[in-house]
């Protein structure tokens, strides 16, 4: 990188409730960072390097923020090794305390907002979200669109490698969410989404009810009530091949229960129009 394009490293945002470290890449991409995908991880050493490769291959302006919950399998160490051997926008937030999927997402968004990236998104680390679908999602982020949800349940979207029971469960959960919260989105349980920074800046992150996977729905409720226009873009959701899922029946049932708390706190949405 020539002296005139050397960029200052990003600083870590303050996390009052979390002990964490933030790692910039020794040599970032020379292209300005225009989109940053947050990837929460716990024991994803089998998947993370390949996933980063596929995202970075989309363009030098694409970046990754891995938010690792101090995985015992060395996920964070693999990310550090990747940073040392690639000139790319690859960042690591290593969380040592206050761990959990919901809080990892919150801390990831707070860090990304501190970095002033124009478009910020999130995706799973287990291979179920294909980076190749991200290009279509970005293309869908037209001027009048505030965010894009990667959806299995719109025309062109589908699921692969999942049992019939899991497929039916996904559809039932989304029907339940639409009925209780009045959201118009077909796949409100999708963890694959991108938003303009201005949308995320309106969320009071430390006041969120959820600290688990249901943070996905709470974000949509707040954004939808704020009048922002979201669309759904088709994706192919693939069942995890490597590693083990942290989702269990207890987490699932708690996520469904907390939807009722969202109804009490935010009410039922009556605005049902979204950008086509």
> How many whole angstroms does the radius of gyration measure?
18 Å
At the fourth CATH level, what is the homologous superfamily?
Answer: Spore Coat Polysaccharide Biosynthesis Protein SpsA, Chain A
Low-confidence stretches: 1-6, 271-276
In what range is the share of β-strand residues?
A: 15-25%
Across the major sheet, the strand order is 1-4-3-2-5-8-6-9
Kindly name the structural category.
alpha/beta
Order of helices and strands: EEHEHEHEHEEHEHHEEH
CATH topology: Spore Coat Polysaccharide Biosynthesis Protein SpsA, Chain A
Number of helices: 8
Describe the structure.
With 276 residues, the protein is of the alpha/beta class. The chain has a single domain (3-266), classed as Spore Coat Polysaccharide Biosynthesis Protein SpsA, Chain A (Alpha-Beta Complex), CATH 3.90.550. Helix content is 34%, strand content 18%. It is built from eight helices and ten strands. The protein has an eight-stranded mixed sheet, with helices on both faces. Strands 7-10 form a two-stranded parallel ribbon. The longest helix has 18 residues, at 164-181. The protein is globular. The termini are far apart. Residues 1-6 and 271-276 have low confidence and may be disordered.
